[in-house]
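ok so i was messing around last nite and threw this chain in just to see what happens. nothing serious, just curious
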Amino acid sequence: MTALLQVTDLHIDYDLGRGRRQHAVAGVSFALDPGEVVAIVGESGSGKSTTAHSIINLLAGNARRVSGDISFDGADLTQLTEKEWESVRGARIALIPQDPTVSLDPVRRVGDQVAEVLRLHGLADRADAAHRAVELLELAGIPDAELRSRQYPHQFSGGMRQRVLIAAALAADPRLVIADEPTSALDVTVQKQILDHIEQRAAQLGTAVLLITHDLGVAADRASRIIVMQHGRIVEQGLAEQVLRDPQQDYTKQLIAAAPSISATTARPTAQVSVAAAEGIPVLELHDVVKEFALPDRGLLRAVDGVSLQLHRGETLALVGESGSGKSTTARLALRIDEPTAGRIVFDGEDITAVDRRTLKAFRRRVQFVYQSPYASLNPRFTLEQIIAEPLRAHRVGSRDQRHERALELLDQVRLPARLATRRPTELSGGQRQRVAIARALALEPDVVVLDEAVSALDVSVQRQILDLLAENQQRHQLSYLFITHDLAVVSQIADRVVVLQRGRVVETGATEQVLRHPREPYTQQLVQAIPGRRLHEPAFAEV
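result:
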C-alpha cells in the first residue's frame, strides 16, 4: 500500500531573536497509510505539535522548516504556494485543534462557521451549506442541531464546542485529519464520546487520523501505531501494543510508568489512613449541604443538592464527576469561600457554617487551596519567595528573615532549588509553577489542602512527579487532601476513598479500589468504563 502521508528527515527551528535558534524538530521521519490511526506521544516541548502543524503549513511565525520532505497523496507539500494550500487545507487535510474556545469565532453562529468550510471549497452554495452544516452538527452528536446551529460558542459546553470543531474538520470529507490534543481538557466520558465519533466518522470515510496526545491511555485505545517523541526526535515507534507492552527505550518506559491510566503503580500505598484516625473525629464534614444560584429568567439552579461527606486526618478523599456535577462548588463551600444555602459545615468538631470573621480567618489558616491553573493563581509580578511567603505575611507569621527561611525550606520540600527564589512564575514550566502553588499551600502548615483539578493540565511525567510530591508531604505532615478531579485514573493512584457526584448529588461513595473495580451505580460504571487505556490493562479497572 502506498503511504498517504510521508514525512522524511524533517528539521524545524524556532528563531528566538538575537541570532539564537532552537531546534524543535530534528530528523523526524514516519508514514501514515490511508484509513490508519497513528498517535504521536511525548511531553510538552517534544516537538509533536510542531511536527503536526508543519504538515498542514501552519507553523508559528518564528518557526521555519530547515530541511526535509513532506508528501501527501503523491504531492510534495513543501512546494505548494499559499494559493494552492487553500485547496488542500480543510478540504483534503483537516485540523482539529486543542482549544475550541480560541479556535471558534465568538461573534459568529456555530452553524455559519461549519458551513463556511463547505462554501470556501465550493462544495455547497449558501443555502445548501447551511442545511448541510445542521446535518454535520447532528452527526457530531449535538442535540437539537438545527436550533443549536443558530447559537454562539459561549452558549456551548467545552465538549459541545469540540464537537463543532470536529463537524467543521470533517465537513469536506478530508483524507487526513490531524487531531492535536482534541480532548485534553474534557471529562473522560465526553472525551470517550468525542474520540468515538472521530473514530467512527474516520472509518466511514476511510480517513487517516494523526492523533497528537500526551495521554498514553488514549493512544493505547485509539491508535494502531505509536510514535514516541522526545526533544524533537523520534525515540521509538511501532505497533501500539508492542510499544506499550514491550518498550525498548528508557524514555518510553518512563512515560508508561508515569501514565495513570496504564501504569500498575500508585503514587502512595493504599489504606494509608490509620484505623484510629478513621474512627476519630473527622477533620472536615459536610452535612446535607445545598447551594442554589439564581439564574436570570430561569429561577434557581441547585448546583449542590444535599451533599454529605467526611474527610479524616491523613486521608485523601477524591471528589469525582463530570463538569457541572458540583465538585468545585462543593469544594468552595467546604472552604467557606461560598455561603451554603442550607446544611452544615463542621471543621475539627466545630460548626463553622455561620461564624464571625475572626473565626473564619483562623479556619482559613488551617485549610488551603491549590487551583487547576497555577499560572492564573500566581501573581506574575511577585518572585517565588514573595508568592510562597504571602500567606505568612497575611497571617502575620514570623519576621521577615523567618519568612525568607520558611520560603527556602518550602522550595526544598517541593524539590525546587533555592536559586529559583528570585524568579517569577513566567520563568517556570507548568510543573514548576504547580510546585510553587503547593509550596504556598503548605506555608501555614495546614490540616487540609483542597486540590481542584491540580494535575489535569500537566504532562503524565510531570503529573506523576506532583502526585508523588503530594503523597510525600502527606506522610510528612499528616495532611488531609480533598482531591477534586474528573480523572478516575488519577484517583486510582492517590485516593483512599471516593465520592461520586452527579448533578449536585452524591450517587456513590466508598474505598477507591471498591468503587473503581465494582461500581454499583450506572453513572459510576459509565465513568469507569470511559477511563482511557482499558484496552491495554482491562483487569486493572472495573469488572462491569
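not much to say yet. The mean pLDDT is 88.
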